[in-house]
Known about the structure:
Radius of gyration: 18 Å
CATH topology of the domain at 2-119: Jelly Rolls
Number of helices: 8
Shape: globular
CATH superfamily of the domain at 2-119: Jelly Rolls
Largest sheet: 4 strands, antiparallel
Structural class: alpha+beta
Distance between the termini: 35 Å
Strand order of the largest sheet: 1-8-3-6
CATH architecture of the domain at 2-119: Sandwich
Amino acid sequence: xxxxxxxxxxxxxxxxxxxxxxxxxxxxxxxxxxxxxxxxxxxxxxxxxxxxxxxxxxxxxxxxxxxxxxxxxxxxxxxxxxxxxxxxxxxxxxxxxxxxxxxxxxxxxxxxxxxxxxxxxxxxxxxxxxxxxxxxxxxxxxxxxxxxxxxxxxxxxxxxxxxxxxxxxxxxxxxxxxxxxxxxxxxxxx
Length: 190
């Protein structure tokens, strides 16, 4: 699993092998069971995550108690919450493991210490976040401009493994449609 981390460091930094190994040795890799809640909506996050194996669902619950799934994070994706602009710094989302997961877990309180110790690590993190943000912008623009059927087709093209990994009602929520509509669209497509 650590080879995934080395891949990112080689691609996004010029760290020596010794520095890369030292960083990996300092990282905490944690296994979580399916159903584990990493962060609850309303909580102040103290950790960030990088998924080595598994799938995590991001969702929120509105005032009427309805869940809305806004993302799924899978292998080689980071879960970082940007809520420093909020007075209470609470999360607008709950993050729950949809599968058993293995993740690198970073402590937000010691993050700056790691960046000072390994200056290229901050640059690598920024590049990863920029790539992720760019991808999210593209996906959001495509989502807004597309029909439900086009959203399903895009999902089948870009993230087909989600169909087997995620319950249909959560996938339908993510696509902004009902589970019944998702079923009908999948039948039409196949």
